[in-house]
Write a structure and sequence with these properties.
heterodimer; A: 476 residues; two-stranded antiparallel ribbon; 8 strands; B: 337 residues; mainly alpha; Formate dehydrogenase/DMSO reductase fold; 13 helices
Chain lengths: 476, 337
């Protein structure tokens, strides 16, 4: 443990309610788990639709097989996501009763809308999977559309709730109670737009690069048949289109944060005092009001924020000392932002490589290095997703609802949260491991029986005939 | 009339509707896990277990949507009640959430695992969690119904759910889930013409109904001593529903050999659902004990209207989609047979 962390630890133990640290750790951990599953509901389902479209349009059996298998992977991950999402709704109450008790009338509305989308997505995933052999191709294809749309809608709703915590709007407080609410202003708060588009594109990048990575590994091991090539190209193309858009949107989002969430922006830039000609620091740590280490690009932050070295950026000194984010959290936000941007540009380079080869020769880059990098691109995209989420969540501290509710006031006073957290770690480790094992088992069986699909998944019909499962089923 | 049909009361009714749907449909799922648990060794229990999986597989866990609905409506429309319950009954709530994680994982993984040993492990997790989860939900209902959750929350962490009414609630919840599931499974077995399994679940439905009936009669005495307001209101405005429940329960048992599967299901749902409606009527107009009414607990009007709009939209969107899924499922079954 570095001295910095040790200091932070002592400071936390002395000044914070004892429940705060385990509650934050648990919320961060379970949300960090859940957010990895989101891209599959939002974007893998879209990728599956692309393959499905190709299968029908070009009478392509390979694309059909890919679409069917991706739909089953989506179902498994949706089932796991449904569980971790249900846990999160318990946690909102069990860990943060003051947040829900006081702000539920406003904060709850986007979640109510999310409920509809979640329900619709569950139903239509089941319809889509049941429909493979039971509906004609085009009607079946269209039953996939509600899955994609409700994935987007559900994500937008949850991001709306998160954005509301950053820039709360649409309610009036009197005597510590919410007395009036404007539901539309709650949902369409000032942070909603940029956070939502940023998350959508992140979902397409994560799902696209992760799925493509599976087939990249296959090709590196010599399985270069059309099944693997198509399985690589469809998701990779989706991610490669999303990546440059994400760079542009991310840049706009950063300027919006500069404009509307100045404290978060100051933490991202590790800026202690309001000033112009602010350098862009890459790497480094924030300690005692000063930036240590790191690479400084003169005027960089000012130019990025306002296209001029004279752009004035607010520093952490604008915030009363007791409401400033702790130094180690400032470092964390800054480094997370750097990691996100760095990975974003690395993936942009990989996408450009792919785009160039495809434009010139209508095929993948020949270099094995392209496949090697593609194999890890998905993991990098997940890291970037988590880092971006750290920026928005940790960058809001010490607030839960900016300007209205401090995190230390939102936390519960009940129960031994360390025990709960320990149990959560063990269980989620088991669930995570089981998920990976199950996906690998599906992969093995698909490889073994490449002619027919015989994997039963949640929400789907049984592939095994009833007579085999229940001997004597036909007996009167 | 106008003081009954207020926006807060309508939202409270919608919320309670969610509780009702979760209790009966989620209950059938949980009960399936109960019969899985007591089906005996791997060989002996193979056929009942296979039927249970067939019967509840398609909708398994979809019913937790009702739970999410309850939580969301409660924290949005009655947020102070939500935080009071969460800060008081956090122990059984955490344990119920744990049970849901285990059950959900069993759902996600059991159908994919191939080796018997893996299947047995995930099956055992599924079965045990199917019993403890409704038990803890029952203790939560008991704690709320007997007025042990203070308006300001932070009530007693132990006695709020370890008390006579809560234990009664927990035990009854497990038995009721077992009863609904057995009735549903009778219908399933008959539709698939599995005569021996029909008899198997008929015996178990009888046993569950008798046990639930006996516990309920004993429960009346428990409530008289432990939750007097609930007792008097259940035997007052709630009485028609209690009687309806008894009638449905007896009719289901009497007609179990002759009635069509649909009628059997409806009677089972009626027996359980009307008791729960009776609880709601007995509770009205209070949300917590006698100290927090629906009107006092409700959020600002715009939020309540938003919740109603969302609920109506949900019904309009979800009902036709569920119907489509059901049709497809039936079509698949026809192909299967």
């Amino acid at each position: 443990m570095s001295p910095l962390w040790a200091e932070a630890w002592i400071w936390i133990c002395a000044a914070e309610p004892p429940q705060l640290l385990p509650a934050r750790q648990q919320m961060a951990f379970t949300l960090g788990f859940h957010i990895i599953l989101v891209p599959f509901g939002v974007a893998l389902t879209f990728i599956m639709m692309v393959a499905n479209y190709r299968a029908i349009r070009h009478d392509d059996d390979v694309a059909l097989r890919l679409a069917q298998r991706w739909s089953k992977v989506a179902a498994v991950l949706f089932a796991v996501g449904a569980v971790s999402g249900t846990v999160l709704s318990f946690e909102l109450g069990l860990l943060w009763p003051e947040l829900m008790g006081r702000f539920g009338p406003a904060f709850g509305i986007p979640f109510a809308i999310e409920g509809i989308f979640f329900f619709l997505e569950a139903i239509f995933i089941a319809i889509y999977i049941y429909g493979w052999n039971r509906l004609r191709p085009w009607p079946h294809f269209w039953t996939g559309l509600p899955v994609v749309l409700s994935g987007l809608g559900g994500t937008a709703s949850v991001v709306a709730a998160n954005a509301w915590m950053n820039l709360p709007a649409g309610f009036t407080m009197r005597g510590g109670r919410v007395v009036d609410v404007q539901p539309l202003d709650v949902i369409f708060n000032d942070a909603f737009g940029y956070e939502t588009i940023h998350m959508f594109l992140a979902a397409y990048m994560v799902a696209g690069f992760l799925v493509a990575g599976v087939y990249a590994v296959g090709m590196l091991r010599g399985r270069t048949d059309r099944y693997h090539r198509l399985g690589f190209v469809i998701p990779f193309a989706v991610a490669a289109i999303a990546t440059p858009l994400q760079i542009v949107v991310g840049d706009i989002a950063a300027r919006q944060v500069f404009d509307k969430e100045p404290v978060k922006f100051a933490a991202i830039e590790m800026l202690s005092r309001t000033s112009t000609h602010v350098p862009e620091t890459i790497g480094g740590i924030y300690d005692d009001g000063r930036v240590r280490y790191g690479l400084r690009i003169p005027n960089g932050a000012s130019i990025l924020a306002g296209f001029s070295p004279n752009t004035r950026i607010k520093g952490l000194n604008e915030v009363p000392p007791e409401l400033r984010p702790e130094p180690h959290l400032v470092t964390l936000v800054h480094l997370a932002f750097d990691v996100m941007v760095l990975i974003g540009f690395a993936l942009l380079g990989l996408s450009a490589w792919f785009g160039w080869a495809w434009w010139r020769r209508r095929e993948l880059p020949k270099s094995r290095w392209f496949l090697r990098l593609s194999a890890i691109a998905g993991i990098l995209a997940v890291i970037a997703l988590e880092a971006g989420w750290v920026v928005t969540e940790v960058g809001r501290q010490p607030w839960t609802v900016v300007g209205h509710l401090l995190t230390r006031d939102a936390v519960t006073t009940r129960g031994n949260l360390w025990v709960v957290f320990a149990a959560t770690l063990v269980i989620y480790a088991a669930v995570g491991t089981a998920t990976i094992l199950v996906l690998r088992a599906m992969q093995r069986r698909w490889r073994a029986s490449d002619a027919r699909d015989d994997v039963s998944v949640p929400y789907g019909p049984d592939e095994q005939p009833l007579e085999k499962a229940i001997p004597g089923a036909d007996a009167p | 009339m106008s003081d009954v049909l207020t926006v807060p009361n309508v939202v409270a009714a919608v919320l309670f509707g969610g509780v009702l749907l979760y209790a009966v449909f989620g209950g059938a799922d949980f009960g399936g896990g109960f019969w899985d648990l007591v089906a005996g060794g791997a060989e002996r229990g193979r056929r009942p277990r296979a039927l249970i999986e067939r019967a509840i597989g398609p909708v398994w866990e979809a019913n937790h949507v009702w739970l999410v609905f309850i939580l969301v409506v409660m924290w949005t429309a009655f947020s102070s009640v939500f935080s009071a319950i969460m800060t008081t009954l956090f122990v059984p709530l955490s344990l119920a959430a744990l049970g849901i994680v285990f059950r959900g994982s069993g759902f996600a993984f059991r159908r994919i695992t191939v080796r018997t040993q893996e299947q047995r492990a995930s099956g055992a997790v599924f079965a045990v969690s199917s019993v403890i989860t409704p038990f803890f939900f029952g203790t939560i209902a008991g704690g709320i119904a007997s007025g042990r959750v203070p308006s300001s929350g932070n009530g007693d962490a132990v006695t709020s759910w370890i008390n006579p009414t809560s234990i009664l609630g927990g035990v009854l919840a497990v038995l009721v889930c077992a009863y609904i599931a057995a009735m549903f499974l009778i219908a399933e077995a008959r539709r698939r013409r599995l005569g021996d399994l029909e008899t198997y679940f008929r015996r178990r439905a009888f046993a569950a109904a008798l046990a639930a009936g006996a516990i309920s009669i004993a429960g009346i005495l428990v409530l008289r001593d432990d939750a007097h307001r609930l007792y008097t209101r259940l035997l007052g405005p709630g009485l028609p529903f209690v009687i309806l429940s008894i009638v449905c329960g007896l009719a289901a048992l009497a007609l179990v050999r002759r009635a069509s599967p649909t009628i059997l299901r409806l009677l089972a749902l009626g027996a359980v659902g009307s008791v729960i409606v009776g609880w709601g009527v007995a509770q009205y107009p209070e949300m917590l004990g006698t100290h927090l009414s629906i009107a006092a607990a409700s959020s600002p009007r715009a939020t309540m209207v938003a919740v109603l709009v969302v609920s109506v939209a949900a019904a309009l969107l979800v009902v036709p989609s569920l119907a489509l899924l059901y049709v497809l499922q039936q079509r698949g079954r026809l192909e299967e047979a």
